[in-house]
Amino acid sequence: MKTNEKQGNNSIFFRVWMALICVVFIMGCETTSNQQNYESMQEISDEDLDRLGITNKDKLSAASKRALAWPKIGNEWFGEFQVFDLKGDLAYEEGVVRRDPSAIVQVDGKYFVWYSKSVGTTDGFAGNIEKDKVFPWDRCDIWYATSEDGWTWKEEGMAVGRGPKGAYDDRSVFTTEILAHEGKYYLTYQTVKSPYNVRVKNQVGLAWADSPHGPWTKSEEPILSPADNGVWEGEEDNRFRVVKKGDFDSHKVHDPCLLAYDGKYYLYYKGEQMGEEITFGGRQIRHGVAIADNPLGPYVKSDYNPISNSGHEICVWPYNGGIASLITTDGPEKNTIQWSPDGINFEIMSVIKGAPHAIGLNRSLDTEAAPFGALEWGLTHQYKTYNYQYIRRFHGKRRTTHVAKGESASR
Hints:
The chain is mainly β. The protein has two domains: 2-69, no CATH class; 79-398, Glycosyl hydrolase domain, family 43 (Tachylectin-2, Chain A). The chain has three helices and 26 strands. The strands form seven sheets. Strands 2, 3, 4, 5, 6 and 7 form a six-stranded mixed beta sheet that branches. Strands 1-26-25-24 form a four-stranded antiparallel beta sheet, with no helix packed on it. Strands 8-9-10-11 form a four-stranded antiparallel beta sheet, with no helix packed on it. A hairpin with a 5-residue loop joins strand 25 (377-383) and strand 26. The chain is globular and about 70 Å long.
């Protein structure tokens, strides 16, 4: 008994001793950190203080400290948008869903775009999910249209349809993107296998062709799937009840976009996590990338995923040796343009107000001309009602001034 008491006392003494060491260590770290912060504050220039309207560098709020840490990148990445109706077959049509336009490519003087198409109203999950349409993007096929001027479009027909019963894409194929590369064309897109319940795990498919008109050859298996390390809680069809959430993409991989970059093929995508939470930035949505040596794969997810803290639809383009990304809708860094020198490590370049959703970039534009150049014009979708969406055209332009009516904008 005395031996046990002695061991217990020794154990208590050891824990107290370790706790004291930890406290001293933490205090030392805080002192070092505070000293470093103090020293860095002494290096603040009068120009920085004047530019940010800070009166006293010895009395800095948390907001002022953040502002002083901002990179000095100017406003080259800042702009604004307008959206317009299209003519021809892509004008709004009652009873038809056309949404999620791909990038636009120009072939032999003609513009091409691909998109998700379905018909009928949305029923949700309350009815018969084997027969009903649970989302506007449910029971979709991928169609395409062409245009001479980017305004009046002719619907050419279906490009990629749903697979046979039992296939990984038998329920819906949707949210597509196009890569035109070395004389071939590659469509990446989301897939769903029936039944479309709440816990269904979306995947990514691929189709390729020698002509933008097809015919298209589909991959027999998905080229990208959700991480397989989350654990649902119970059998109820509830996506918020989990034992373990798993990776950022443990539930769904969405919005694929394939770029040829740095001698390889970068497949950017949106990840949804099992047990997705609502945080101070809204929904927990993040982006990832998978890389391959061949456009047909195999694609290997980057060890550095996730590569964003926010976002929704993928909108990426090459610029200045790296990759730019428009981040919209969800997360604490939503409504920003970010840029990465290596396609993986992204930094915020500007905050964008009112960016169109589900942007289809115009790949025929010179994206290297200016940071905002890729957003000069392209396509987007808009909700007419929850049941029906249609494709529209956006124009973007760089904004350099903020003036009142009648005021001169000259500097």
